[in-house]
Specification:
The protein is mainly α. It folds into two domains: about 200 residues, Up-down Bundle (Growth Hormone, Chain: A); about 180 residues, MFS general substrate transporter like domains (Growth Hormone, Chain: A, Up-down Bundle). About 75% of the residues lie in helices and about 0% in strands. The chain has 22 helices and no strands. Helix 19 runs antiparallel to helix 20.
Length: about 425
């Protein structure tokens, strides 16, 4: 098994055929598909149950999409488990937690207040191990294949999320939410078994420090480093502001046309991931990061003029290809962090991304009240561009070949 793993890392992986030829990557991809479908189906069931019990759109939205906010607590205290625990074991904990949570949610007479308590379980557990999957990906694929592998997992998550919500919507026509919870629990159990028996374990990092102490120390180092801090900000802030634009699609275009805008942006993001991950040679990838981060925001400047829905769809499609810049920032993050802290580095990235999106969406709503949706979207685009430009000097410190003095602690680990 060890020899096979070493051989896989000696190969160039630049096509989908080559990356899916790696047995453990196929397992990781399948597990991501099954887990995403389970979470989407279970979230829809929870939303339907909460709305039926409370009649509150706010509580329903929190039930379906508020869970990731819980990861802030875990990321500040126990995120180092992503490194100190073996990555296979760490990766199986979250789907296993979903098995328990969805099985309990299936109880038909459970009070909605308890449903919120149960909702916290998998997200709190996941916040401790959220970087383990990316750590596994780095172990499974060679360095040149990381972007393609990450893009493939992104595509799997996006497609299966749509499929999960679509399947759940159809099932709700004939079955109760209880049945959906049981289906979601079964799917999460399948994902747990797929990872357990399809991935070989790697050793965790030995640390003489407690989990909370190590988590805080590594977080301070990552956020305090002049090398990694600009990378995190580049992945969190400009993207979050553009998510704020997307959060205004309904007030901008109305319910009938907003769906086209959401579909167009999803398609644009998919296209960007495919092109950057599959067709851009590794030697030329990094130089695209700057143009892509500007592309993400620039088309939204056109919303100042309140374009017709057909034009808005094109602008949203083109802009969303710029999300692929995050793939390149993540590739840099691999290059500037040591193996001993890589799981926590990616877990912190994931938490910050979700928080940035939530803040961006909230800011978009606040700005739209006095400015209206078109001008609010244009202003968010200006802010996104301004932040991207301001981060340019700092991002040079993480560029390939740059002399990164003072980052030895990040490279060697803790």
């Amino acid at each position: 098994m060890e020899i096979a793993g070493q051989l896989s890392h000696s190969r160039d992986v630049r096509t989908y055929r080559e990356i899916f030829a790696l047995p453990e990557f196929r397992v990781l991809f399948l597990a991501r598909c099954v887990t995403t479908t389970a979470v989407a189906t279970g979230s829809l069931a929870l939303g339907a149950t909460t709305y039926a019990g409370t009649g509150s759109p706010v509580l329903t939205a929190l039930a379906m999409f508020g869970g990731p906010l819980i990861t802030l607590l875990g990321s500040a205290t126990v995120l180092s488990v992503s490194d100190t625990m073996g990555p296979r074991r760490a990766s199986t904990i979250m789907p296993a937690a979903y098995v328990v949570a969805f099985a309990v949610q299936a109880l038909p007479d459970l009070a909605w207040g308890w449903r919120f308590v149960i909702l916290a379980l998998p997200h709190l557990v996941g916040s401790a191990t959220s970087g383990a999957t990316m750590r596994l990906l780095h172990e499974i694929v060679p360095a040149d294949g990381f972007v393609l592998g990450r893009a493939s997992l992104n595509i799997a998550a996006g497609v299966m999320q749509v499929a999960g919500y679509g399947l759940g919507g159809l099932l709700l026509v004939w079955f109760s939410p209880t049945v959906l919870f049981l289906i979601a629990a079964g799917s999460a159990a399948a994902a747990t078994l797929i990872l357990r028996f399809g991935i070989r374990e790697r050793a965790g990092v030995t640390s003489g420090k407690g989990v909370v102490e190590r988590t805080r120390e590594v977080n301070r180092a990552l956020l305090g480093s002049p090398v990694t801090r600009p990378l995190y900000l580049a992945m969190w802030v400009p993207n979050g502001l553009i998510v704020g634009c997307e959060a205004l699609f309904v007030p901008y275009a109305g319910q009938s046309s907003a769906g086209y805008l959401f579909a167009a942006t999803a398609a644009g993001m998919l296209l960007g991931d495919v092109v950057v991950g599959r067709f851009v040679p590794p030697a030329h990838r990094d130089r695209l990061a700057g143009p892509l981060r500007l592309l993400l925001a620039a088309p939204y400047l056109g919303f100042w003029l309140a374009p017709a829905p057909a034009v808005a769809v094109v602008l949203g499609f083109v802009a969303s290809a710029g999300y692929a810049a995050s793939l390149l920032w993540q590739e840099r993050l691999v290059g500037v962090t040591g193996a001993a802290i890589r799981g926590q580095a990616f877990g912190l990235c994931s938490t910050g991304t979700m928080v940035g999106q939530a803040v961006g969406a909230g800011l978009g709503g606040v700005l739209a009240v006095p400015l209206g949706a078109p001008h609010a979207m244009g202003l968010l685009a200006v802010l996104s561009l301004a932040v991207s430009v301001a981060l340019t000097p700092g991002l040079r410190r993480s560029a390939p070949g740059h002399d990164r003095q003072g980052s030895s602690a990040l490279m060697s680990g803790f």
